[in-house]
Specification:
7 strands, alpha+beta, two-stranded antiparallel sheet, five-stranded antiparallel beta sheet
Length: 122
């Protein structure tokens, strides 16, 4: 998946013990760099114990089925998602909208969004 290949971890904080949400997985948090779309827009894709993802634990990024995402405009979190209106799976994406973020978004939906968005700005 392209978005997974492009994701880069900027900070990671493992902690001793198991995740509070999953007794089979390690706990901790991480922050991934934003995926740059163009000069103004980026996509934040996050997954760790402290994010709305599945599983909620600190695992390698390819082990997640769902991620937390957010739209970044000019370096700031935005809830103005009009830029995504033409995305073919827009209605499906909106099912995960929690206001400022999108929670528990399936990775195949993120992949389609990321590839569509990048191609839309070329």
């Amino acid at each position: 998946m392209r978005f997974l290949r492009d994701l880069k971890v900027s900070e990671e904080y493992p902690r001793e013990g198991k995740s509070l949400f999953s007794s089979n997985n390690p706990g901790g948090s991480r922050i991934c760099e934003w995926l740059r779309i163009d000069d103004k827009y980026s996509l934040s894709v996050q997954a760790s114990e402290s994010h709305y993802c599945t599983p909620r634990a600190l695992l390698p990024l390819d082990k997640y089925e769902e991620f937390e995402i957010a739209i970044i405009y000019d370096g700031c979190l935005t809830c103005d998602i009009r830029v995504l209106k033409e995305f073919p799976r827009y209605e499906e994406l909106m099912e995960f909208n929690e206001g400022d973020i999108f929670a528990f978004v399936p990775k195949n939906l993120i992949e389609d969004l990321y590839c569509w968005w990048i191609n839309s700005f070329r």
